Structure formats: C-alpha cells, structure tokens
Amino acid sequence: MKSKSDIGxxxxxxxxxxxxxxxxxxxxxxxxxxxxxxxVEKFVTGRAEGKTIRGAYSVEELxxxxxxxxKIMIMVKAGxxxxxxxxxxxxxxxxxxxxxxxxxxxxxxxxxxxxxxKEKGIHFVGAGVSGGEEGALTGPSIMPGGxxxxxxxxxxxxxxxxxxxxxxxxxxxxxxxNGAGHFVKMVHNGIExxxxxxxxxxxxxxxxxxxLSADEIHQVFKxxxxxxxxxxxxxxxxxxxxxxxxxxxxxxxxxxxTAGQKGTGKWTGVVALDLGVPLTLIAESVFxxxxxxxxxxxVEASKILAGPEKSFxxxxxxxxxxxxxxVLASKIVSYAQGYTLMREAAKEFNWNLNYGGIALMWxxxxxxxxxxxxxxxxxxxxxxxxxxxxxxxxxxxTVVNAQSSWRNVxxxxxxxxxxxxxxxxxxxxxxxxxxxxxxANLLQAQRDYFGAHTYERTDKPRGEFFHTNWTGRGGxxxxxTYDV
Length: 484
What we know:
By secondary structure, this protein is of the alpha/beta class. The protein folds into three domains: 7-174, NAD(P)-binding Rossmann-like Domain (Rossmann fold); 185-434, Orthogonal Bundle (N-(1-d-carboxylethyl)-l-norvaline Dehydrogenase, domain 2); 438-483, Single alpha-helices involved in coiled-coils or other helix-helix interfaces (Up-down Bundle), CATH 1.20.5. 53% of the residues lie in helices and 8% in strands. It has 19 helices and nine strands. The protein has helices at residues 14-25, 37-44, 59-64, 80-89, 107-119, 132-138, 148-161, 180-210, 214-224, 232-242, 264-275, 280-292, 295-304, 316-349, 355-361, 373-382, 393-415, 421-433, 440-451, and strands at 7-10, 30-33, 53-56, 71-74, 98-101, 123-130, 141-146, 164-165, 169-170. A hairpin with a 3-residue loop joins strand 8 (164-165) and strand 9 (169-170). It starts with 6 loop residues before the first strand and ends in a 33-residue tail after the last helix. Homodimer. NADP(+) binds at residues 11-16, 34-36, 76-78, 104.
C-alpha cells in the first residue's frame, strides 16, 4: 500500500463503501472515514480487509493520510451534513486541495459552496453519481462539475472507476462550471422518474385493459428489451414481473401501491417552471407519485366515484406493439424535454455543456442507461446547436411513425378509465410543439381584458405591445409586460 492515499472518502453508507471498494479494485489507495468511527473499524476489518484501503478515525488523520493535492470525496446526506463536513475539513486543508461532493445535492448549494471555497483557495467539485449500489461497486456514471483545475487531478480516479461503453470510453467527463454536474444529475433523475412511470403505466394498461398476467407481462418486457427500448429499467421490470413470493404468487402484486421520492424529480420540475421550460412528462411523473401517496383517500374514493367498465376486444398482440411504440415515443419526448431544460439552464448560468458527452455519460452505469442514448449522442454530434431532439431526423421519424399507435393507446386508456398521465402528457407536448398556432391568442386577450397586460399582434413586428379598452370603461394605461 502507498504511504499516502490517492483519495479520501467520508461516509460509509452503501454508496460510500462501494465506491471505495471500486477505487481500490482499480489500483487506487483510499482512506475511509466516517463520523461514527465504529463503522470505519467494521469496514476496514471486514469488506476492505486486505485491500489498498486504510481507515481514519479523525478528520486530522484523514487529511494527514492523503497525497497532495489532497482529494476528499464526501458521501453523506445532502444538505446541512455536507456543509458541516466541509467546515470540519477547512481548517486542515491547504490551498489547492480538493473537496468533492458525490451526493444527490441540489445544484444551487453546489454553486454556493464552489464560490465559498474558491475564496479560501480550495477547489470544489460537485459530482453526480448514478448507478445505485451495484453501479458504485462495478462502475457508475459520474457527472462532475465545478473547478476545471481540480478535474485534472480527479479525472484519472473518476474515469478509472466509471462504467465503460464501446471502445472503453468512460461514462464520466467534465460537465461544466460550478453546479453543472449536480444539475445534469438532477435532470438524469427527473428523466428516471419519467421512464419508471411510463413502464408503470404500460404495466397497468396491460394488466387492467388487456388482461395479461404477471408472467405474460414479464414476457412482453423481455421482448421489449430486444428492441429500441433496451434499457436497464425495462430489464429490471422484466425481472420483477417474474419474481415469485414464497407462495408462488407474483411478489409485485403484494407490494403496496404508494411510492416515495427523495426530491430530485421535484427539483427538476421546479427549475423547469423557473426557466419557463415545458417539462410536462417529468412533472406528471412526480405528481403520479404524489397521488399514489393518497392511498387511503383513493380507496375511499374508489367506492364512491365510478368509472367506465373496462373492456378490450381487439388484437392483443397488435395492441401490445402499439403500447411499445407509445412508450418509445413518450420516452423520446421525456429526453427531449430534459435536454431542453439543460440548454436553458446553460444560458441562465453561463455553462458550456457538452450535450453529446452527457448522453455518453448516461450510456452505461446509470439507472437511465438505454440503447438510444447513442442516437442522442449522434444527434448532437451532427448538430451541436439542435434546439429539440424531436427535430433530429432519427427521432423525428421514430416519433412520427409511432403516433398512430401512441394515439390508439392514449385513447384506449382514457376510454377504459385507466390513468396514463405520462403517456398522455408526452402526446400533448408533441401535439403542442408541432402546432404552428396555439390558442394563447385568446389567453392574451383575457389577460389584457381583466389586467391590461397587453398583447402582440400578428400584423405587427414582434416586441410591439398593444392594449385594448375592451369594455369602454377602462383607460389607456397598460400593465407592465414581462416574458415567462
């Protein structure tokens, strides 16, 4: 073992431990530290025994064990614990040392911390890490942002431990300035919310409308995973549908239908509203979890509020293919919305994001890894200024060809009273985006009528605003105009 460690990691929960083991397996020497030092002792004498991992039982011991510039990765709960950990480190660090936050941190906190530490001469990296327990151990997707100078020092470690795709390319590269890494990870998690909900809606439609059993749905997901929908989430959904409880019945049907969340999907929706980006599918996926949490209310409402009788008389195989096309088209819309959000955030925060590179980072190791991320990378390589994925030739053709199936599935779900919030939100976005004239002209007239908010005219240049005295009782004074 080297006399000085290459990196230190604070936090020995599942992700922290597995990242340390991953680093050691790639030839790096790591110092492990946890505020509860009994966890350090348990780790170094257990899973870490015999590996290039040493334990530290104080912050001072941790810092002293590291080679310069010192690199310390924080893997603790987001929020105040990260700030407290940073404050405990500062007195022991030298100028040029590096602190890395690898948790699910909200990007404004990363922007704040990067500026704060920069004043003290300490580099800060906010790195989103995706892949869960298995990914952390065998190769996650890592999205680092912050100090570009620090990136040169942590690059060999992060790219060494990350997942690899074709040609050995690492699913890790520098994302952008200050909070860009955590922002991209947040968008990743928002897309993850949407992908999961789309598969849940497909499952419910297959079960309640088409009448398929868990084993039959398992076979559907298995087949889907050989198509453009090949992805980690389809793969695990396939396995979940086949998993039996001790009595031989599908375990999935015994799991309570109320979902939790850690907040990253909500953050994505909130910043989309702040930036005026129509992130409708991801927002609906968050609200779907919210309505699932109203379990007791829903049970009572089901006894009072009647819906249509469910019936299906068509060709099951043909409808399942329609459903696959609908899920594929909706998934494309989800990514299109997510990329639009990143583009607007880059303008707002002056980040230089590599959109094709982000797709590559998501190709392996992370929860949303899927086959068509390679097509996203190609789209941005072909046109780095692409405004919307739906305008790329491949995605345009895929979605346009799927729309008949998509509409059939949406109509069938609605006719049978089965909620499909993400499938239908995606279709509504597609229809809204491709519509040259929307009814917002009436909306602007309404706003001007009751609040003198003004409007633009089709027969006048953009940027010229007008107000009408609609009732004859109003004056000529107009309210100030602003853009969302």
